TrEMBL record:
UniProt organism field: Kiloniella laminariae
Record lineage: Bacteria, Pseudomonadati, Pseudomonadota, Alphaproteobacteria, Rhodospirillales
Protein name: 3-keto-5-aminohexanoate cleavage protein
PANTHER family recorded: 3-KETO-5-AMINOHEXANOATE CLEAVAGE ENZYME, 3-KETO-5-AMINOHEXANOATE CLEAVAGE ENZYME-RELATED
Cofactor(s) this protein requires: Zn(2+)
Pfam families referenced in this protein's UniProt entry, alphabetically: BKACE
Entry superkingdom: Bacteria
Keywords noted in UniProt: Metal-binding, Transferase, Zinc
């Protein structure tokens, strides 16, 4: 069991729409406020995506990232609230074959080069950025991240001195990460996030989590999450197996059946579960030290 637990809060994600939950953060102001709310509730890390404020859809706009992170850093300075900034680098991998010509991407395709997937990371230099460590079927599209793409991304992230959070959606992604480590492209100690319950990758249950945990390299820091109604059960399971916790509106909208949640409420619920298990939650500075994540700005 892990007795010193780091909570990460993914405050908005890219898939949940306002028509499902009116309080899902969309604008830079809302997303930065949500990160502060999560930190006040006990999250040490805030995981950020951005959205088009007019449509609510996921966005790769570097200016939206700059505005959101700028607002968050200003609020951290003014309020004294500290949180580790973790920014997605997972956008730009969606591929939907054109039915008439499967060699080409059809509607819904959003493919970017490794350099373009990391432009906002290079500009903003957060402590952590995600690294989706392989390709997979992600609901109704294919997410594409080839080994050579990953090699290029890892080299760039390493040069930026940002800690990659290796998002593993199935066992092969852990194998790929270990290969990248052996090539000197991921520094020790590695940080893994075991992503469970996303159709159609690893299922959200204890057997899957344990199998993935058992394949991690020695000395790895790791956490796990489950989407939807499995969120709190997987949070508790992760702590029991020695991992950290991720809860937030990117992964789940409900505090309980029929009751829509806020990020702060989800973090508070997870913190209560962790403490009732006899563990404690770490703060942002403790998380930086644990993950060997460098605060550059």
């Amino acid at each position: 069991m892990n007795n010193e637990v780091i909570i990460t809060c993914p405050v908005t994600g890219s898939g949940i729409k306002k028509d499902r939950h009116t309080n899902v953060p969309v604008t830079p102001e809302e997303i930065s406020d949500a990160a502060i709310e999560a930190a006040k509730a006990g999250a040490a890390v805030a995981h950020l995506h951005v959205r088009n404020p007019d449509t609510g859809q996921a966005s790769n706009d570097i200016n939206l990232y700059a505005e959101t992170v700028g607002l968050l850093r200003d609020k951290m300075n003014k309020t004294g609230v500290d949180v580790v900034i973790n920014i997605t680098a997972g956008m730009g991998g969606e591929f939907v074959p054109d039915p008439a010509n499967p060699n080409n991407g059809g509607p819904g395709t959003d493919m970017l080069s490794p350099v373009d997937r990391l432009k906002h990371i290079d500009l903003l230099r957060p402590e952590i950025c995600t690294l989706d460590c392989g390709s997979l079927n992600f609901s109704d599209y294919a997410y594409v991240s080839t080994p050579d793409m990953l090699r290029e991304m890892c080299a760039l992230i390493q040069k930026m001195e940002v800690k990659p959070e290796i998002e593993a959606f199935e066992l092969g992604h852990i194998w790929m990460a270990k290969q990248l480590m052996s090539e000197g492209l991921i520094d020790a100690p590695p940080l893994f996030q075991l992503c469970l319950g996303i159709p159609y990758a690893a299922e959200a249950n204890g057997e899957t989590m344990l199998a993935m945990r058992n394949m991690l390299p020695e000395g790895a820091n790791w956490g796990s999450f489950g989407v939807g109604p499995t969120q709190m059960a997987m949070a508790a399971q992760s702590v029991i197996f020695g991992g950290h916790v991720r809860v937030g509106l990117e992964d789940n909208l409900y505090l309980e059946r029929g009751v829509l949640a806020s990020n702060g409420q989800l973090v508070s619920r997870a913190k209560e579960i962790i403490e009732r298990m006899g563990a404690r939650t770490l703060n942002a500075e403790e998380a930086r030290k644990k993950f060997a994540a460098k605060k550059q700005r």
